[in-house]
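This section describes the prediction task in plain terms. A model, or a person checking by hand, is given the sequence of a single protein chain and must write out its three-dimensional structure as a string of tokens. No templates, partner chains or ligands are provided. The sample shown here is typical of the held-out split.
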Amino acid sequence: MPITEVTSNAHDLTLTVVADYPVPVERLWDAYADPRQLERFWGPEQWPATFTRHDMAVGGRSHYYMTGPDGTMAHGWFRYLAIEPLTRIELEDGFGDAAGTPNPDMPTMRMVFHFESTAAGSRFRNVTTFPSLEAMEQLVQMGMMEGMRSAMGQIDAVLADLASFVASRGTEAQLLSDTQVRVSRVIRGSAAQVWRAHHDPALMRRWLLGPDGWTMPVCEIASQVGQRYRYEWEKEDGSQRFGFEGELLEIAAPYRAVTTEQMIGMGGPATHNELTLTPLQEGTLMSLLITYPSKELRDMILGTGMTKGMEASYARLEQEVLAA
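The expected answer:
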């Protein structure tokens, strides 16, 4: 059990939890920055968490839900107030609904996560401040202390699991629900570099090609909310042309962009794509949360070998653009 100290102060309305880990502070930081890792310990053992949004940047938000043994879902959210890389994260934490809308009947807490190096590895200190004594007592009665101990008791296993999150694993798709897929890859480059590679047409034509033998004759980007984009590809001999188009719904450079996406010439509802770039020790974590209009379309698209094509593109991005 990594927890070494728990202190409750009714006068200051704070709860402080201290934990020590035998890993460098960079490894501990990445566990909180990477939603694939965070969801393996944020919820208690019987209530595992799933993050459907994780924009760890000032002004960004995270949305998650915890699923109980009987299938009950409890939704929560973060709003990031301050971030000092490898040192400090300050956020608001509250209860909400599936869309991340705060529940006005439940208290919102302020949390400050402190990270520091120690002779044996790293130390994590979480100071939670409650809005009132009543709120503090309410959450303690709801089992907050027990839940926190159970959740943090799982971190050791996550920190020890290096193989699941290394950059060399390539592009992977994780099914979050019947209609949602999270595609992830660590790209060896800074967030600013990876963002530019996704928004500069000249660069995109060099790497966003899928398997060898394809070209990208059309690359019309959207840089402002409400604008539309259009991408088209064809074989080097000019055959098998296809493409996608959509609208830019949100943008927060260099870490988040939300778009719709639809295959050119195809009817029906579009997908909803949320691109998030998060700095990690080994590079930048690219997370693409895709929401499909149906399970059938999700399975059909995944069955086309989508992730293999994406991996070919991201490998090319690293080798021919970022390494140049």
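For orientation: The CA atoms of residues 214 and 236 lie 5 Å apart.
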